[in-house]
Design a protein that fits this description.
Blueprint (H helix, E strand, L loop, with lengths): L2 H21 L4 H13 L6 E7 L5 E6 L5 H7 L2 E2 L7 H7 L3 E3 L12 H4 L6 E8 L5 E9 L7 H12 L3 H18 L24 H4 L2 E3 L2 E2 L1
Antiparallel strand pairs: 1-2, 1-6, 2-3, 4-5, 5-6, 7-8
Length: 222
């Protein structure tokens, strides 16, 4: 079975399990982490996260990131979105994919190098997650410890992953938690450790030719 077919089947299985998991009282983070782990099982070598946009559409909060360093997740929890706010903050602001191939040199990360580089995070590809009505409700990100951009196959896989994030429970379950976060500050108690490997089991493409076909300007893609 090809990677794409295997990934699609794993995500469909996950979708079928989500209603029972929520009915059993599982937390949103646990549900999202299992969703991500279905992708991890297909390959390895990456770190991933889901960030969730607050009701006002101004800040991103932790959703799930089973293998990113806890200190990094806490540092970006509640970050304001904008046109130059790393990969995820920019993707949520623009409503389109942002593939940063070299965090150390990309201007989008200029204000966040002190957060990312100590954890050896070198590339970050972020894509908006949309709710049932098409509005941006969060971001899905893939981090690499080496510089590089995604291939066309990886871009297709990323789109498949974001399309399979369960939008209805994210909107319903996260709306109340986001209000609590806004009142109480960073939701550090929501972080849970766990394995998160990843996508395609390969180093990122250094040439960036495939990703460039999807980009209007450096690092920012449709």
């Amino acid at each position: 079975m090809s990677f794409a077919l295997g990934l699609g089947e794993s995500l469909r299985i996950r979708e079928n399990l989500v209603p029972s998991e929520l009915a059993n009282g599982d937390s949103l983070e646990r549900v999202l982490s299992r969703h991500l782990l279905a992708v991890e099982a297909m390959a390895d070598g990456i770190l991933t996260s889901i960030l969730l946009l607050d009701p006002e559409g101004k800040s991103l909060w932790h959703g799930a990131a089973p293998n990113l360093p806890r200190a990094y997740c806490e540092a970006i929890d509640g970050i304001k979105i904008g046109p130059n706010v790393g990969s995820c903050g920019t993707a949520a602001f623009l409503g389109r994919a942002v593939y940063v191939t070299d965090i150390a040199s990309d201007p989008l990360w200029a204000d966040f190098l002190h957060i990312a580089l100590p954890h050896d995070l070198r590339a970050c590809w972020s894509t908006p997650i949309r709710g049932p009505d098409g509005a941006v409700i969060g971001t899905f990100a893939i981090y690499h410890r080496t510089v590089g951009g995604p291939t066309l196959d990886e871009i297709d896989a990323i789109e498949m992953i974001t399309n399979h994030v369960p939008g209805d429970p994210v909107v319903a379950r996260h709306s109340g938690r986001r209000r609590a976060c806004a009142e109480q500050g960073p939701c550090k108690a929501l972080f849970a450790a766990g394995p998160w490997s990843g996508l395609a089991g390969r180093k990122p493409s250094r040439g960036g030719a495939a990703a460039a076909k999807h980009c209007e300007i450096s690092s920012i893609c449709n």
